[in-house]
């Protein structure tokens, strides 16, 4: 695992496409029990080099019911994005994650984490990649059907504060999904 982590941290495959340069941001451990697969680091995370070190991370930790120490213990929780480096900003927010990362690194990482019991698929990029044709017609329907993907996967919307409107339109998320998520996370940890 140590060699693979070093190799990923040194990756520069997409350098020519990344306006802010390469800086793979992730965390994983051989004994990880839960994997969180998100989109890609944002501007703040690119600057700090700490996964989920922003408001989205605060929301995600709250959704899971875990503290900083637990969240950032790679022997408990692996933090693996679809794109390992900050892709830059587009017209309506961050650009999509680079497509090269997940096929290049995910299987190698997953093969070295035999104790994983649950993978949180945060956002549509992760859901489409891992659920394929089992994903519903949109993110809302996929998240609503979260029980169908258990015990391996738990689909979630992105925890960005920008999604507060989505949460307000979908009160079932806080009423049904988040209690189930917290219960499962605590059981596994």
Chain-wise SSE layout:
Layout lengths: L1 H8 L24 E5 L4 H6 L6 H10 L3 H4 L5 E5 L7 E2 L2 E2 L6 H11 L6 E5 L1 H8 L7 H6 L8 E4 L7 H6 L2 H17 L1
Parallel strand pairs: 1-2, 1-5, 5-6
Antiparallel strand pairs: 3-4
Looking at this structure, what is the CATH superfamily?
Uracil-DNA glycosylase-like domain
The percentage of residues in β strands lies in 5-15%
Report the total helices: 9
Any idea what the CATH architecture is? 3-Layer(aba) Sandwich
Rounded to the nearest angstrom, the radius of gyration is 16 Å
- Choose one word for the global shape: globular
Q: Which strand order do you get reading across the main beta sheet? A: 2-1-5-6
Give the tally of β-strands: 6
Low-pLDDT parts are none
Distance between the termini: 21 Å
Q: Roughly what is the average pLDDT, rounded to an integer?
A: 96
How many separate domains?
Answer: 1
CATH topology: Uracil-DNA Glycosylase, subunit E
Characterize the main sheet. 4 strands, parallel
**What structural class results from the helix and strand content?**
alpha/beta
Helical fraction equals 40-55%
Instruction: Spell the H/E element sequence.
Output: HEHHHEEEHEHHEHH
CATH top level assignment: Alpha Beta
Structure characterization notes:
- The radius of gyration is 16 Å and the shape is globular.
- Strand 3 and strand 4 form a beta hairpin.
- It has a single domain, classed as 3-Layer(aba) Sandwich (Uracil-DNA Glycosylase, subunit E).
- By secondary structure, the chain is α/β, with parallel strands linked by helices.
- Helix content is 40%, strand content 12%.
- The chain contains 9 helices and 6 strands, in the order αβαααβββαβααβαα.
- The two termini are 21 Å apart.
């Amino acid at each position: 695992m140590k060699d693979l982590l070093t190799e990923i941290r040194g990756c520069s495959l997409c350098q020519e496409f990344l306006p802010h340069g390469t800086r793979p941001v992730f965390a994983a451990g051989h004994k990880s029990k839960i994997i969180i697969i998100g989109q890609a680091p944002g501007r703040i995370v690119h600057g700090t080099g700490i996964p989920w070190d922003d408001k989205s991370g605060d929301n995600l930790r709250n959704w899971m019911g875990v503290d900083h120490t637990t969240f950032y213990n790679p022997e408990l929780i692996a933090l693996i994005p679809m794109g390992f480096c900050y892709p830059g900003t587009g017209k309506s927010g961050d650009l999509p994650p680079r497509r090269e990362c997940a096929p290049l690194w995910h299987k190698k990482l997953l093969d070295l984490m035999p104790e994983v019991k649950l993978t949180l698929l945060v956002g549509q990029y992760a859901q489409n990649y891992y659920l394929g044709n089992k994903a519903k017609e949109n993110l809302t329907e996929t998240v609503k059907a979260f029980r169908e993907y258990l015990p391996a996967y738990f689909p979630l919307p992105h925890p960005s504060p920008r999604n507060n409107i989505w949460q307000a339109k979908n009160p079932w998320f806080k009423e049904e999904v988040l209690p189930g998520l917290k219960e499962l996370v605590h059981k596994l940890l």
